[in-house]
Amino acid sequence: MIDALDVLIADESPALRRVLRLLLERDGGIRVVGDSADLGCALDRCRALQPTVLLADGDLIRRAGETPAEVQDRLHGTALVVLSLYPDAHPAPEAPSATAVPVLAKDSAPERLAATVRAVAARAQRGREGDGAAGDAPAGTD
């Protein structure tokens, strides 16, 4: 069970970062540990702070020349949730998987935002618990 969720927010709008912080922190058990207007800086902060979830603007990811799946692969234990003005513009995976990155509309209800952050964090924790010893590669990989 996850006791406290630490979240880092990445969006170029200071006003939106502030609103997201207020919305998330009013939901008990979610703490925003930092924010960034730049994806590279956000990834550096994730390495340093090890938040449970990175809540990142889809445009920041796209402008950095990356996909959400590529960013998720670089997070090493931090789960990713993408925020977008146009969530339908982000292709859904052909088949749902444990590694699919959720995309939320920036105008989603606050309850949905908090619920998604909690669900993604819980899914990530279940995945870590099922991985076995730290550093073990899944069978059949190099």
Description:
The chain is α/β, with parallel strands linked by helices and 142 residues long. It contains 5 helices and 5 strands. It has a 5-stranded parallel β-sheet with strand order 2-1-3-4-5, sandwiched between helices. It is globular, with a radius of gyration of 15 Å. The N and C termini lie far apart (31 Å). The C terminus is likely disordered.
Concise synopsis of the structure shown:
With 142 residues, the protein is of the alpha/beta class. The chain has helices at residues 14-25, 39-49, 58-63, 68-74, 110-130; strands spanning 5-10, 30-36, 53-57, 79-84, 103-105.
What is the helical fraction, as a range of percent?
40-55%
- Number of alpha- plus pi-helical segments: 5
Inertia-based shape: globular
Would you count the extended β strands for me?
A: 5
Key words describing this protein structure:
single chain, 142 residues, alpha/beta, 5-stranded parallel sheet, 5 helices, 19% strand, globular, disordered C terminus
List the helices and strands and how they pair.
Blueprint: E1 5-10, H1 14-25, E2 30-36, H2 39-49, E3 53-57, H3 58-63, H4 68-74, E4 79-84, E5 103-105, H5 110-130
Parallel strand pairs: 1-2, 1-3, 3-4, 4-5
